[in-house]
Amino acid sequence: MFTDREPNLRHHGDTEVGGGLVDLAVNVRAGTPPPWLRQLLADTLGGLAAYPDGRSARAAVARRHRRPDSETLLTSGAAEAFVLLARTLRPRRTVVVHPQFTEPEAALRDAGHPVERLMLRPRNGFRLDPATVPADADLVVVGNPTNPTSILHPAADLAALARPGRTLVVDEAFADTVPGEAESLAGRRDLPGVVVLRSLTKTWGLAGLRIGYVLAAPGMIAALEAAQPLWPVSTPALVAAEACSTPAALAEAEAAARATAEDREYLLSRLAELPTIRTYGQPAASFVLIRMAGATTVRERLRGTGFAVRRGDTFPGLGPDWLRIAVRDKATLDAFFEALTALQL
Predict the structure, then answer these.
(1) C-alpha closest to that of 343 among 323, 313, 328, 318
(2) Which helix (H) or strand (E) covers residue 110, if one does?
(3) Would residue 39 count as lying in a domain?
(4) How many structural domains are present in the chain?
(5) Closest CA to 315 of 3, 2, 1, 11
(6) 219: number of CA atoms within 13 Å, CB side?
(7) 134-163 pLDDT, tens per residue?
(8) pTM to 2 decimals?
(9) Final residue in a domain of this structure, among 186, 216, 248
(10) Of 103, 64, 80, 73, which Cα lies nearest the Cα of 238?
(11) Hey, which bits of 5-112 come out as E strands?
């Protein structure tokens, strides 16, 4: 049972949409997958009688991050990686930095691990101070950029948390929504115990395909791979992983990230028009977290006008006055603000 003090960690934005609502609740880029990727996926259907062979896709992802294949593991979405880590690791003291995506903590608790929460505060712009992480924590989990706050932590601050004897899990599911993938640790091979998780869901619109990957030292990758079932990633998902790692695809993703950044600034400018709404810190990803009185009522009334936004009270450290809004194109955002202002906020 979940209470106001213990939020439902398994509530996700997809439960907010449907019924013809304009989706501002799920952080998947609109209009995806692109036509060329849909065609590649369709072309895999004739080969589904064969068991998946992930070697080529694994090599492509490894090249994309300038790592050897032994430091790369493809997974059935980043969610599988959270479960593999929870089942494989044996931490003595686990700290999860919140507010952040709740699935890592849920997976750890399901595997029987006690979890401590390190709460970041809005008054500090949801910034992480490395000094606040307990020195004896041997498993630390943090998102970058963080869902739902949209805050991008400096790579140097995260690197300062890496040390022998500690596993530092950095969830970079939204890293490719940031121009230049700024502050990413995906290419850092010199930091002990760092595990980076990536997803193809957000930029490429592949939530239903389930494809992500892990970047880590060979020993960690081998341990996680040993915990996987046979053939954990489907042939279409492998084709997507390989295709989205090409130079042309990376250039397309970069262009999309820059367009998203422009639309996010537009969203922030419109939010600034409403004195009842507050934002904290400098949002950097494909969504914005806002705070306003009566957010629960506003969210329900917005549904009545055809718009779905993400409730914030299921994230530890937040409450009923928080909403998360996905970045969309300016026309969609203008229509959303017309509905929002009509509520006489």
Answers:
(1) 323
(2) helix 103-110
(3) no
(4) 2
(5) 11
(6) 5
(7) 999 999 999 999 999 999 999 999 999 999
(8) 0.95
(9) 248
(10) 73
(11) 22-24, 72-75, 94-98
